[in-house]
Amino acid sequence: MKMAIFQVRTWLSRRFSSVSSHPLQVCVVGSGPAGFYTAEKMLKAHQGAQVDIIDRLPTPFGLVRSGVAPDHPETKIVVNQFSRAAQHERCSFFGNVTLGSSLSLAELRELYHVVVLAYGAESDRVLGIPGELGNLFGGIMDIQIAKT
To answer: Any keyword 4Fe-4S (predicted)?
Structure first.
């Protein structure tokens, strides 16, 4: 893990001498659907923009890869679309990079013109508000139930 952190920081420091001296540099934190749709739109809207996608997981696509119920294979078709974006010459994916430990938000803001936070929830969270019912389930629980 420390080697991955070193590699990312080394690559970033070599790549960016100054944000202002390069075309639009975009970092998307999170490689699920929100992250890839954002990357795709940025690549189309800004000729010359470089989009880097980072994720704490080693592989891209988030819950599309691991959370789609077996009876919904059509949902996984977007992986083809996301793969095309990932293979774009101006797009790079960096896995095993955790915001807050591998790199800080402040570091990303120094290195990029735009930082998009598109990471999802890894677990459900109880809100602790009056009226919260015991028979309501969050999205992660819903996915787990659907996959069984």
So the answer is: no
